[in-house]
Amino acid sequence: MASSSSSQLPPSVFNPRRHVGVHAERVSDVASTDFPGHYPGEDHTWSLARFKENLTVSVKRLSQRSVEFDLVGVDASIANAFRRIMIAEVPTIAIEDVFVWNNTSVIHDEILAQRLGLIPLNVDPALFSPRLPGDIPYDRNTLVFQLDIECSRGAKGAIINEYVTSGDLKWVPQGEQESVFGDLVPTATNKDIVIAKLRPGQVINVELHAIKGVGKEHAKWSPVATATYRLHPLVLLNPSKPIPPHLAQKFASCFSPGVVKVSPDGEVSIDDRHLRKETMSREVLRHKEFEGSVELKRVRDWFIYSVESEGPYAPEVLFPESIKVMRGKIAAIRAAAEALLADSEGPDAGAAAAGPDADGDVEMEP
Amino acid sequence: MAESIPKIQILKGAEPDLSAATYQIHDESHTIGNALRWMLMKNEKVEFCGYSVPHPSENHINMRIQMYDGLSSLTALIQALKDLDDLCVTIDEEYTKSLQSGQFERWDEKS
């Protein structure tokens, strides 16, 4: 089953081995099969040259807050690793300690602290080292803010400081921080987040300590609002059972706008340029008259990432950051594995039972 | 965490020549587990490779590797890690290239 001849997609996309079937109530062929021994007589061992040949990475849309890019030619396990790292292991700075000197608002101290922790800060995490439990706070691992606000009644009954927002956070430079940050004054990325509402006479006076962390510890350290991927949709028409011209419009309306083209004489074709917009609603599979004339597929190794940044990183640098973290993890495991190997090749080669002497404190890249 | 926990431990029951062994990798999850499993399975000398997260509140994964021809699973593991690193470098280069080409839609997103 081939699609239209004027295809914008590379022909290899129509290779049935790359297809995940989308049916009315199930999906099929989800697992990848590109392993040695799966297809007799074919070589599916790892080859970097072959991988490079098949790999396509292309950025599609970029705004100041989000990015959409395609990663084609990798396995789901790899694509998923980067997605997971973007959410949970790319570090950011967030408020961790809240010292409440005074709080007479209706918001309880612990709720207030929780809300403060979730404020995204515009601080480059590369400038900081993580502060582990028991470490002493100092200028390289802790950022201090002050939030001191009192609500009062002004002229003609106007209420001053009714809303406490993230813009009210005042940075208190410590040690070298003033010279390191220069003009980049640490603040919230969004200054309009309401933290609390006050009535005249109510006071909030807190000191905040922000530290470096990762999303797997607490979501407040996650640098993304969302980081997701989906597989590229594919609609295949069956040339031996074409759509009759009088049903062409009905057929087209089963898909997202633009996906199906109808020629003036009622001939139906797929517009590959708009295929990625297809929602895969499966509406077409509900109609008896279209049975057998169309197949819905997704391309198993074509990942369309959508990443929204919420914090200090520009959206386009989040993916390279995740690769950096991944390589740091690989390096740490590799160092340990090599230490293990050196150990087993040592004088008493009864390796398996011997206690491994792997270096547990290998440094991870920030 | 305590410094005493090694990054990798070989669990008991491994073959003396390490042709079949289970590696317990500390402080890792599905992120590395699944990617590494895939890369190990791309090696034709690997008879079996699988990983598990034994318990969600235990911070480690178990990676089982069994080799053909009595080869060392540890060498295969190290090779897979090298290959995985090459893969990361390749993807990074391609992404940077695409970003620098500037051939994409730029749009203004209201926050």
Automatic annotation (TrEMBL), chain A:
Protein origin, superkingdom: Eukaryota
Write out the biased-composition intervals (Low complexity). 344-357
On whether Transcription is a keyword of this UniProt record, the answer is yes
Per UniProt, the keywords (alphabetical) are: DNA-directed RNA polymerase, Nucleus, Transcription
Q: Where is the signal peptide?
A: none
- Residues annotated as region Disordered? 344-366
- InterPro entries xref list: DNA-dir_RNA_pol_30-40kDasu_CS, DNA-dir_RNA_pol_insert, DNA-dir_RNA_pol_RpoA/D/Rpb3, RBP11-like, RNAP_Rpo3/Rpb3/RPAC1, RNAPI/III_AC40, RNApol_insert_sf, Rpo3/RPB3_RNA_Pol_subunit
Subcellular localization is given as:
Nucleus
One family from Pfam that matches here is: RNA_pol_A_bac
Q: List cellular component terms (GO).
A: nuclear DNA-directed RNA polymerase complex; RNA polymerase I complex; RNA polymerase III complex
Domain called DNA-directed RNA polymerase RpoA/D/Rpb3-type: residue spans: 66-336
Biological process (GO) annotations held by this record are: DNA-templated transcription
The record's GO molecular-function terms, alphabetically, read: DNA binding; DNA-directed RNA polymerase activity; protein dimerization activity
What CDD domains does its record include? Answer: RNAP_I_II_AC40 (cd07032)
Q: Does the keyword Transcription apply?
A: yes
Q: Which SUPFAM superfamilies does this chain map to?
A: Insert subdomain of RNA polymerase alpha subunit (SSF56553), RBP11-like subunits of RNA polymerase (SSF55257)
PROSITE patterns attached here?
Answer: RNA_POL_D_30KD (PS00446)
User: In which family does this protein belong, per the annotation?
Assistant: Belongs to the archaeal Rpo3/eukaryotic RPB3 RNA polymerase subunit family.
Query: What's the name of the protein?
Result: DNA-directed RNA polymerases I and III subunit RPAC1
UniProtKB/TrEMBL annotation, chain B:
Q: Where is the DNA-directed RNA polymerase RBP11-like dimerisation domain?
A: 20-93
Q: Which GO terms describe its cellular component?
A: nuclear DNA-directed RNA polymerase complex; RNA polymerase I complex; RNA polymerase III complex
Q: Which domain of life is it from?
A: Eukaryota
The entry lists its GO molecular-function terms as: DNA binding; DNA-directed RNA polymerase activity; protein dimerization activity
Gene3D superfamilies reported in the protein's UniProt record: RNA polymerase, RBP11-like subunit (3.30.1360.10)
Q: Name one GO biological process term.
A: transcription elongation by RNA polymerase I
The leader peptide range reads none
- Major localisation: nucleus
Q: Where in the cell is it found?
A: Nucleus
Keywords, ordered alphabetically = DNA-directed RNA polymerase, Nucleus, Transcription
Q: Which family does it belong to?
A: Belongs to the archaeal Rpo11/eukaryotic RPB11/RPC19 RNA polymerase subunit family.
Q: Return the protein name.
A: DNA-directed RNA polymerases I and III subunit RPAC2
